[in-house]
Amino acid sequence: MSGTVILSEGAEFDHVIQEVSRYIHLYVMPFGKDERTIARIDKRENMYGGNGTVYLIQMFGQNELANNRLAAYMVLLNNGDESGFHTHNARNEEELYVVVHGTGEYRERTGTEGAVRKKVLQKGDITAINSIGYHSIENTGDEPLIMFVITTNNP
After folding, report:
1. pTM for this prediction
2. Which segments of the protein form a coiled coil according to its record (predicted)?
3. Torsion angles phi and psi, residue 2, rounded to 5
4. Mean pLDDT to the nearest integer, 41-58
5. Is the dihedral of CA 39, 72, 74, 47 positive or negative?
């Protein structure tokens, strides 16, 4: 995906892992395979036209699941970091955000010009995003916003 940098080592990678590990245990037990930690971190600047940086901590490798985006942590480390409005219509995907730490503002609308509905999200909240809806998320708190993201694969 364009605009994506894969972090596999270095100071930025270590910083993201250290920050997230303060709040959650990055652990995976794939069926029939050895237990392990994350597969990689994808870094996206100004994701979908949003502000700041979004990190996607990929828990599975490219060919381990039907869709490698099926299970990832979306991390917005700083207040104001955001994923801008986007849709998954072209890929016919639906998405769930499960907030595991922090506070953020979730926004959704129908189409590119529809009325915007907003909701403050905090730990334990879940959103359900259909494939035709547009949505965005912004860290509005003073701590990292960490969400577990489940994306369907419906080709």
Report:
1. 0.91
2. none
3. -65, 150
4. 95
5. positive
